[in-house]
């Protein structure tokens, strides 16, 4: 999952964290999700973040799942203990130590954010510069075919 929360909102006050994560386009989930039980050693996965701007690397950092406050297996156990998920679940772990840019860095329209997790895969997302560019997503929330058509460039609509 690529969490591109609003750093300007988060930076103002930690209590604003929920508001920083609710706008359209603030999180992307890859279609190539790897089930936890297929990961050989989830305690030592390397996670790399790269932000490209105008064709050059504007920010890059790495961390590992070993830096997490709670081990991945503990997070999975806690999630599944709370209730069953017959169709599975996406567990967002939060950010590991050392990968988050400083408050002086902000994403810009046109940037490309790439997250790579060794043994799992890579997720690459363009940053949109204007909320209007995501209006289709909000309007299509109940129309999966509209979302698919937009992603693939197909002419199919609602």
Automatic annotation (TrEMBL):
Domain Fumarylacetoacetase-like C-terminal intervals: 2-128
Gene Ontology terms describing biological process: small molecule metabolic process
InterPro entries: FAH, Fumarylacetoacetase-like_C, Fumarylacetoacetase_C_sf
GO molecular function: hydrolase activity; metal ion binding
Keywords: Hydrolase, Metal-binding
One Pfam match: FAA_hydrolase
Superkingdom of origin organism: Bacteria
Signal sequence residues: none
Protein family (similarity comment): Belongs to the FAH family.
PANTHER family with a match to the protein in the record: 2-DEHYDRO-3-DEOXY-D-ARABINONATE DEHYDRATASE, FUMARYLACETOACETATE HYDROLASE DOMAIN-CONTAINING PROTEIN 2A-RELATED
The protein's name in its UniProt record: Fumarylacetoacetate hydrolase family protein
Species of the source: Streptomyces sp. NBC_00119
